[in-house]
Amino acid sequence: AAKEAGRNQMILFDEELRAKRLAAARTVHRLREAITRDEFLVYFQPLVRLADERIIGVEALIRWQPAGESMVPPDRFIGIAEDSGLIVPIGAWVLRESCRVVSGWHRRHGTVVSVNVSPRQLREPDFGLLVLDVLRTSGLPPEALILEITEGVLVNSGKVTEQAISHLGMLRSHGIKVAIDDFGTGYSSLAYLRDLPIDNLKIDRSFMPTPGSPDPAAQTLIKTIIDLAAGLHLGTIAEGVETAEQVVLLRDLGCDRAQGFFYSRPVPEADAARLIQDSTTAIR
Ligand code: C2E
Ligand code: MG
Ligand code: MG
Ligand code: MG
Fold first, then answer.
1. What is the DSSP letter of 43?
2. Global confidence as pTM
3. What is the per-residue pLDDT across 179-189, written as a single tens digit (0 to 9) for each?
4. CB 90 within 8 Å of CB 81
5. Atom of ligand 1 lying closest to residue 62 CA
């Protein structure tokens, strides 16, 4: 009976796997169509400077709007786009579109833009040239662009990935900034922070203290990350800020910037433009 149950489980597992693969293949097909049909959008989430709570920048976040369907969040398709290589053209589009939109905001308000870059994009030999071309055609100065990468881009199972390092080193020599996204959730050693071409740490939202309850462990972790960044002359950006208490804590600990639902959700271009315009005074 135990054997029988084991076999049944195996069959179930096989079927689940097959169903998953089929769904992924279907998504790849639909993503290809989405590229030709122009079904992607960029939403923008304000980045707030904690010292005066002004919006000094935005993070560009992709959205997929298939005709006649509800919007698909990135968590449902970025992984599949990465595995299939489609993230290369999709990521290039996000970069171009974000820089085009934000160059206008930058001229008027000095707004900067942070764009997520996947490991797959950084393996492309032409990635560095692509970024420089996007800046030239959009008119956005290099200092106004932040590339967000995850720890895994730079350090893969303990090994530093040379292609990524060389792209980022070259781009930084032009003035472009690099941020480590979701900092603290990877498994790489801290030693890499000293040697790698980066400017900012984005503290993952899982470190934000639980609202309404004293959370000394979370506070200790956040303080440690902020102190670490300061010691290495890196800027800090807190992600997933949802309450006024969290803002007070972050400011007390010397965090530079914050983003989260407390200030604004990611919003379409027109709404972001309005928020930035209004924030030439203060956001709240
Ligand atoms: P991320 O880069 O860490 O972006 C932050 C995510 O946290 C966004 O989810 C944002 O909506 C969400 N968020 C912001 N503030 C709060 C908050 O206060 N509370 C909570 N609970 N969530 C908050 P989103 O837009 O669904 O994006 C998810 C992930 O998808 C991103 O995480 C990023 O890893 C990836 N992604 C998004 N756009 C792109 C893109 O253009 N290229 C690539 N390669 N990845 C992207
Ligand atoms: Mg990000
Ligand atoms: Mg993040
Ligand atoms: Mg994330």
1. E
2. 0.93
3. 999 999 887 77
4. yes
5. 38
